[in-house]
Amino acid sequence: MAALSDFRLLRPASAADAVRLRGEHPASRFLAGGTDLLPNMRRGLVTAEAIIDLGGVAELAELRVVDAALHVGAGVTLATLAADPVVQARLPALAQAAASVAGPTHRTAATLGGNLCLDTRCMYYNQSEPWRHAIQNCMKIAGDTCRVATKSDRCWAAFSGDVAPALLALDAEVQVLGPQGSRRLSLADFYRDDGMAWLSLAADELLVSVRIPLTDGWVSAYEKLQVRGAIDFPLTGVAVALRREGDLIGDLRVACTGVSSRPELIGGLESLAGKPFDDAALALVEKQIKRGTQPMETTVINVSYRRRVTPVLAKRLLRRLWQAAA
Amino acid sequence: MKSILRLSVNGKPREDAVADNALLIDYLRDTLRLTGTKQGCDGGECGACTVLVDGQPRLSCCTLAHSVAGRDIETIEGLSHTGNLSRLQRAFHEHLGSQCGFCTPGMIMAAEALLRRNPHPDLPQIKAALAGNLCRCTGYVKIIESVEAASRTEELAA
Questions:
Q1: What is the ipTM of this complex?
Q2: Is residue A294 a part of any domain in this protein?
Q3: Per the structure, how many domains does chain B have?
Q4: B71 and B35 together in one domain
Q5: Taking the CA of residue B96 as centre, how many other CA atoms within 13 Å lie in the half-sphere pointing to its CB?
Q6: Given CB 3.0 to 4.6 Å as the disulfide criterion, which of A127, A131, B41, B152 pairs with B46?
Q7: Same domain, B44 and B103
């Protein structure tokens, strides 16, 4: 691969300093673990005149329980998150999702914030410069057409982070810091359905932390489908969280990744509260997943398979959790 | 632009003028001439460049040198002591864990991190710890046997 382009490295000691530096250097990028950003820079997908390394910002590494919620700094590594006893015991979907990202040597560097902000992926985008040049590029990088849907006026690159669907199912919210101060928003509102602008984060805003409620009675799980079991992005990934009330469904949340330009919290499942866990309930989950996701030709595995297998994963996880919650 | 980088490599403190955009692998191989760390896929997919940062396995091709300022870096060159191979190096040698040898330094560093954390791993734990390391010769069975053999051996005193 090509060498990294020349840039100035800035190493702030606080989140406020990081945001200030981001404002002072418009052509800059935040760097966390670097496992996605640095290879993307070397492939010419990302350019920056300054890199703001967040590794020295102590507040981003916080991981603690406050008021029946787990606060996780955006700089906590996926390895730390996956091994944390509270996460393993109370938020299994999060532990499973964090442990399923790439390989162990990535997870010791890769962070929660980096995985939530992960660049969207597409087989026409994540390629070498000569390859992309040969197809006159795509609209996500210097071209004017989406190669996946040539008549479409938008980019369909797929969001492929594993942790986001788990956190959507676990009803997480995020804290963001900008020049005007900090704001909180639900994780669902953190994303936009656009392969080129998939975050609702302004250019000078920094994802600081995630807050996950620790609510009794919920069980959760995450599972992904991948070409290579040992280390790969999800072709599709599903997280489910379930609260059982005796023989009835108390509450249910399902979220998917890899099958839209944003991680999708599946809507229209509220009516299942108070209903029995039967074929009709699972049929509604399947219908709503098919309605709420739109896998496109962004990977080497074809669309119809990913479209059919996503609800299969969800139903399998739900059956398993239903038994576990008995 | 260059700035001063202070860190420890294989137990020795270092102070070098290093470019802001230098990767850890380039610093190790080109500045320090520690060419035991291999450049494989060069994009975070094969694990050949694995080194230890404060005892944790990290991909040196996806890490900026300045991002590990002040940390302890260990490479394959740091494992042997006074001419004696480490138990993992010895086990890879004796159990044919190395074929062409290109993935071996990365495999051994990832396995070293595992054995320090978990001296007697079972088979799934070994496979999980090496999941990010590719062997182009596909010598995985012998690699895993080598790690198992090392886990049954005592480390020679340094």
A1: 0.94
A2: yes
A3: 2
A4: yes
A5: 6
A6: B41
A7: no
Own/partner long-range contacts of B77-81 (Cβ < 8 Å, ≥24 apart): B77/B10, B77/B34, B77/B36, B78/B9, B78/B10, B78/B11, B79/B108, B79/B112, B81/B156, B81/B158
Q: Which of A53, A102, A106 lies at the smallest CB-CB distance from B64?
A: A53
**Angle subtended at Cα A256 by Cα A255 and Cα A259, rounded to the nearest 5 degrees:** 155
Contacts of A228 in chain B (CB under 8 A): none
C-alpha dist (Å) from residue A249 to A12, A255, A278, A282, B126: 48, 17, 10, 11, 40
Interface membership of A1 toward B (CB under 8 Å):
yes
Question: Is B137 found in the same domain as B108?
Answer: yes
Q: For residue range B34-79, what is the model confidence (pLDDT) as tens digits?
A: 999 999 998 999 999 999 999 999 999 999 999 999 999 999 999 9
| A129 in contact with B, Cβ within 8 Å | no
Nearest chain A alpha carbon to B22:
A4
| Residues of chain A above pLDDT 70, percent | 100
CB contact under 8 A, B50 and A105: yes
| Contact flag A103-B66 (C-beta cutoff 8 Å) | no
- For tokens 């994540």, name the residue: A126
| A105, A108, A127: best to mutate for the B interface, most B CBs within 10 A | A105
> Which residue, of A9, A25, A57, is where some domain finishes?
A57
Residue where a domain terminates, one of A29, A57, A85? A57
